[in-house]
Design goal:
The complex is a heterotrimer. Chain A has twelve helices and two strands. Chain A has helices at 3-35, 42-58, 63-84, 93-115, 138-160, 162-172, 174-179, 184-206, 218-231, 235-257, 259-276, 280-289; strands at residues 128-131, 134-137. In chain A, helix 3 runs antiparallel to helix 8. The relative contact order of chain A is 0.18. Chain C has helices spanning 17-23, 34-54, 57-82, 90-108, 114-138, 145-163, 204-226, 228-238, 240-245, 250-276, 286-299, 304-325, 329-343, 348-364; strands at 171-172, 175-176, 183-184, 190-191, 198-199, 278-279. In chain C, a hairpin with a 2-residue loop joins strand 1 and strand 2. Classes of the chains: A mainly alpha, B alpha/beta, C mainly alpha.
Chain lengths: 290, 412, 365
């Protein structure tokens, strides 16, 4: 039965790349797609989630609860930040780049000063399993499941709950929503908090598998950035398929030619995709749907 | 994190530079030592301790009367892990602050960035990090370990212990590529086989495909030459996937103390050749650790770079006292005599006049299941022989270049 | 009743050649006009010329170092401030030109003014590469934040690629690319002189050369931006569809502006390499790419004067902060960025100049 281990291996590599892209870009996609803000402090929300998760897990909390703590902390920080700074930057994407980059500098350096240059991590749970002749980390499969679950959960949130409908209405037609009695400021705040919380969740989920230093957000930011922009404004019609396509490209190139080609290939793919579909994937799909 | 202990030193330095930039080197004033280290940014974890080691050595020397009666004054800049800052501050420290010697650099890129400037002003710089070897430059004194010291001891031992099939995982830049070259050479000489070689770009943190490749190969052990926080995530991921192979490295544990930062048993079965780590159990080492922790009780770890920096300050003191001045030619003449040695935390070390690198006692550190360290083997007095053998002789001429095994010095 | 006599524009004598171009030093697209402004400019240049008499060699060399970066800032000012396209990848042209300068001078040496030829070729290479990327982007109708993403990807691809060129097979002629450790060994700018070539290491001589370049570039850009070309760029920035409907091929103008920006970034790159005799892939990385944006944003992107002054102030300020502020330097830098965006979104220097201008007008009345 050589077929099964081989195809499992391919699926595992793809699932890995896909999970990384989806989980790390979900928060950015919500914030960019919904509010037109480019959040360069995204990496620092991830770091926040990771640090809180690691500390609470080491203090004795079971890992899922620790991850939830990390996500919640990031969400709260996000809401505070929205009140003070982000509020003034809606639909000013270029200005938001600078402001959020400034915040990212402050956050990284403050964490370095206050907490030192690195933080001890927690081990990866759940061990490994043998498929064919190779062993795979079970946690990685959990990450893939989380990515799928995340997409499903966000879909339910935005398309099946009242909050979701109000949020989408506010983002698409804010004046109309206000005229109908929606407190748009609160909705914006909550949505930004959601985006930040998703970033914290990414940090928490990946914390057991990575080294934790104040600059750890940098590993996530480029790939999540390009996934979101390639995807376009809509997270479901855009970011998810974008993540899938980029994951396939990255996993395939890494498998055949090594990590260098994987990295470069991903970036070149981004350039090509944007050239072919200038509005991002979601614009292309929407046009194709009509 | 403690308050910045350099504040009073910085204030003194500020006052000094404000009191009219005195042009001439004060022959009877303090001896100024410039320190350019990354105290923030990506490399901060492994370099803050170097500054502390320098401060410890300075305090001890000053308490004992200084160098030839002259106290040491430190001029410290934070280079923020940015090569441009090295260029800016090396110029500042040599032209404006007019220091007598500079202790600078963590990454090889930073060293290559500041070397032209040191050459232009005919300064003297100590590079206290392990690196890929090959710098043949009369203005540089290198106390860091080089590949022939680390790999010619490590690889034969690993092959004897675990088997002849080797898989190399290296960071995809000069240090990783040249170290991998060394590994390849030594494996070849010892009759082993390279069953795989993978180069990972800096900043990559996801290793599932790599882990799969390693499992598919027939490797007896893996040589890991991973650099940076992102790449260090490999250990956790390999452990989670239960790769379960012994690992050999020249660069982890001894520099970035991963065995303290990662949860057991991700680093178990790791073997590292290092010239110093704080777990070494000799009287000299224990005494050093005690004095270090007395001055810096919160220090996370005392790594090999810290020991090298400490030794470097003491070597400089010896050379200045023997030469009777801080003039670089006279110091190099003392170096040329061939017996500048120091009994430090890692044992007896000497400077080699041909390459201006340092001999080392190499300790093989093995990380156990619970991340404690044992020392299965110690090699005394391993010389940095490659540069001299290849044709670099700084007592004769100064090419100011960096060579590699595939780009050796031109035949004389 | 006498009708008001309005001058007939078509009867006005046409200005030609030099006079036309000199008249473009002032115009609607740049701040500052009138004798008062130009007096201040002349004073500033005089002060800069006499600076080396009051400062030691290090400080002058450091000032020369600051000048090296102004070209990249001005280039980004043209592309972003005047044309409206946020390019996140100016460092790609910076690095490319830097490496080109290094490769050329290592191969042909520095005799007979060869370094100046290398400088020219390097800048040209940067410009040509920028035109190519510009063609790819603007003729593909890429706009807005996507321009930023594509340019960022380009610079990161270059960085990742160059960082692994450490092996001996990576060489162009005599020049080894040397990967992450960076390429060194190239000569500085050298002026051929009968008694012995003058090597322009970081110091007073280089300072004067760079000061001259900065002034020329600044005046040249003023003239260009007040010319019809600049007017079209601003029109594209304000409303691309309207500009197109007025008959301008906006893709061509955007591409040309981008090419100009790339050439200026390339000039910075080649000069940086000549200044420090060193170039490295990390000068094309993410942090390096974000820095020009920070300078231009804090300085003020809508005006070339503000961009120039802002760039110098910010670089000098950041360096001082790093020297005297140690750990807190980066925190202060971040706070400065946030403050700028919230309080003075047009840029600190731009807003300051505007306020001063208004103050003077009030005073004169």
């Amino acid at each position: 039965m050589e077929f099964f281990p081989a195809s499992f291996s391919i699926f595992y590599q793809f699932g890995n790349a896909f999970a990384f892209l989806v989980i790390s870009c979900a928060g950015l996609a919500v914030i960019f797609g919904m509010m037109g803000i480019i959040n360069l402090a995204h990496g620092e929300f991830i770091m926040c989630g990771a640090y809180v998760t690691a500390s609470t897990a080491r203090a004795g909390l079971p890992l899922p609860l620790a991850i939830a703590c990390g996500a919640l902390t990031a969400a709260l920080v996000g809401m505070v930040l929205e009140r003070t700074v982000i509020r003034h930057l809606y639909h000013r994407p270029l200005d938001s780049i600078i402001a959020t980059w400034g915040i990212s500098l402050i956050a990284t350096q403050a964490v370095l000063i206050l907490l030192g240059p690195s933080m001890s991590g927690t081990g990866t749970p759940l061990g490994s399993t043998l498929v064919g002749e190779r062993s795979y980390s079970i946690y990685r499969l959990v990450l893939f499941a989380s990515a799928v679950g995340l997409l499903g959960g966000l879909y339910l949130l935005f398309y099946r709950t009242r909050f979701g409908v109000i949020a989408r209405a506010t983002i698409q037609r804010p004046e109309m929503a206000r005229a109908l009695g929606v407190d748009t400021r609160r909705v914006y705040g909550l949505t930004f908090g959601l985006g930040a919380g998703l970033a914290g969740l990414a940090g928490g989920l990946y914390a057991p598998t990575m080294t934790m230093v104040p600059t750890m957000g940098a590993t996530f930011i480029v790939e999540s950035f390009v996934t979101v922009v390639v995807g376009g404004a809509d997270i479901f019609l855009g970011a998810a398929p974008a993540a899938a396509i980029l994951a396939v490209i990255k996993a395939a190139l890494t498998a055949w030619y090594g990590q260098l080609f994987g990295q470069i290939g991903l970036l070149v793919a981004v350039i090509v995709v944007i050239r072919v579909m200038p509005g991002g994937l979601s614009a292309f799909i929407k046009r194709w749907q009509r | 994190m403690k308050k910045n202990p350099n504040r009073h030193l910085m204030a003194a330095m500020l006052a000094g530079t404000c009191i009219a930039g005195l042009p001439a080197m004060a022959q009877d004033g303090p001896i100024k030592i410039g320190v350019l280290e990354d105290q923030s940014g990506d490399f901060a974890a492994a370099t803050n301790v170097k500054v502390h080691a320098i401060e410890l050595a300075t305090k001890e020397i000053n308490d004992a009367g200084g160098i030839d009666g002259r106290p040491i004054e430190l001029v410290i800049y934070d280079t923020q892990s940015d090569n441009r800052r090295y260029q800016e501050f090396m110029r500042r420290v040599l032209q404006q602050d007019q220091v007598d010697v500079v202790f600078a650099g963590f990454s090889s890129a930073s060293r290559e960035a500041y070397r032209p400037i040191v050459n232009q002003f005919d300064g003297l710089a100590f590079y206290n990090n392990q690196y890929e070897g090959g710098v043949c430059d009369a203005n540089m004194i290198v106390t860091g370990a080089v590949p022939e010291q680390q790999f010619s001891t490590l690889i034969p031992w690993m092959m004897e212990e675990y088997g002849p099939n080797v898989y190399t995982l290296a960071a995809d830049y000069n240090f990783g590529q040249i170290s991998a070259e060394w590994v390849r050479q030594i494996v070849d000489e010892q009759g082993g086989t390279m069953v795989g070689e993978e180069f990972i770009p800096l900043g990559v943190s996801q290793f599932s495909q790599t882990i799969q490749n390693i499992q598919e190969s027939d490797a007896d052990f893996v040589v890991t030459l991973l650099v940076g926080a992102a790449q260090a995530s490999y250990y956790e991921q390999a452990n989670a996937s239960n790769v379960d192979l012994p690992m050999a490295s020249s660069v982890n544990v001894g520099q970035g103390y991963e065995h303290k930062r990662f949860t057991p048993p991700s680093l178990s079965q790791m073997h590292v050749t290092t010239n110093y780590i704080e777990e070494i159990d000799t009287p000299a080492s224990n005494d050093f650790v005690e004095r270090f922790r007395a001055m810096f009780p919160d220090e996370p770890y005392i790594n090999q770079e810290a020991a090298n920096s400490y030794i470097g300050i003491n070597l400089y003191k010896q050379m200045v006292e023997r030469a009777g001045s801080t003039d670089h030619d006279e110091i190099r003449a003392v170096l040329g005599e061939g017996d500048v040695c120091f009994d430090g935390p890692s044992g007896n070390v000497c400077l080699d006049p041909q390459s201006q690198h340092m001999s080392h006692t190499i300790y093989l550190a093995k990380v156990e299941e619970d991340h404690s360290i044992t020392f299965p083997e110690v090699w005394e007095n391993i010389e940095p022989y490659w540069l001299g053998d290849a044709g670099c002789d700084l007592t004769q001429n100064d090419p100011s270049a960096q060579y590699t095994p595939s780009n050796p010095p031109p035949a004389q | 009743m006498n009708p008001i006599e309005l001058p007939d524009a078509s009867e006005a004598p046409a200005r030609r050649g030099l006079k036309l171009w000199l008249s473009r030093l002032e115009g609607p697209q740049t701040m500052g006009r009138g004798p008062a402004f130009w007096a201040v400019v002349v004073l500033a240049v005089l002060a800069a010329l006499s600076y080396p008499a009051f400062a030691n060699d290090y400080v002058v060399g450091n000032a020369a170092y600051f000048f090296v970066w102004t070209f990249m800032a001005m280039g980004l000012g043209v592309v972003w401030g005047y044309c409206g396209a946020l390019s996140f990848g100016q460092t790609a042209f910076f690095g490319l030109a830097g490496y080109a300068y290094g490769v050329i001078t290592i191969n042909i040496g520095s005799a007979f003014g060869a370094t100046w030829l290398a400088l020219l070729l390097a800048v040209a290479l940067g410009g040509v590469f920028a035109l190519l990327i510009g063609y790819f982007m603007f003729y593909g109708r890429i706009k807005g934040v996507f321009v930023g993403i594509v340019t960022l990807s380009v610079t990161l691809v270059l960085e990742t690629f160059m960082a692994q060129t450490a092996g001996p097979q990576w060489r162009i002629g005599d020049a080894r690319l040397n990967g992450f450790n960076g390429m060194s060994g190239m000569p500085p700018l050298t002026v051929p002189w009968p008694g012995g070539d003058i090597m322009l290491y970081s110091g007073t001589a280089l300072y004067y050369v760079l000061l001259g370049m900065v002034v020329l570039c600044y005046l040249g850009l003023r003239m260009l931006l007040n010319a019809p070309f600049g007017n079209v760029l601003v029109a594209i920035r304000e409303n691309p569809e309207r500009a197109e409907m007025l008959g301008y091929d906006i893709r061509l103008y955007q591409m040309l502006a981008f090419g100009l920006g790339g050439a200026l970034a390339g000039l910075s790159g080649a000069l940086y390499t000549a200044w420090g005799q060193y170039i490295t892939p990390s000068s094309m990385g993410l942090t390096a790419a974000a820095l020009p944006i920070v300078w231009v944003a804090v300085g003020g992107r809508r005006d070339i004067t503000a961009t120039l002054l802002g760039c110098l102030l910010v670089i000098a300020g950041f360096q001082s902060l790093t020297i005297y502020g140690s750990q807190y330097a980066l925190v202060v830098m971040g706070a400065l960025l946030v403050f700028t965006v919230l309080v003075t979104p047009d840029g600190l220097v731009f807003t300051a100049i505007n306020r001063m201008g208004r103050l003077f007008k009030r005073v004169r009345r």
